[in-house]
Design brief:
The protein is mainly α.
Length: 60
């Protein structure tokens, strides 16, 4: 399994966790359901949020 595969698995997990408030809270993302749905519907916005969140996780 290459690094690209791990990125896709992590991204898929992140995407799944954005679907409900409890899992968004565990990620440290405080957004409402409507905003989450809008982000999930926009692949560019979702990838951007993932990149930002992922970078923040690496800084901690």
């Amino acid at each position: 399994m290459g690094e690209h595969d791990r990125f896709d698995v992590a991204y898929a997990r992140f995407r799944q966790q954005l679907m409900t408030r409890p899992t968004r809270n565990r990620l440290g993302i405080d957004i409402g359901q409507q905003e989450a749905l809008a982000i999930l519907a926009d692949e560019n916005a979702l990838r951007g949020l993932y990149e930002t969140w992922s970078a923040d996780q690496q800084d901690q």
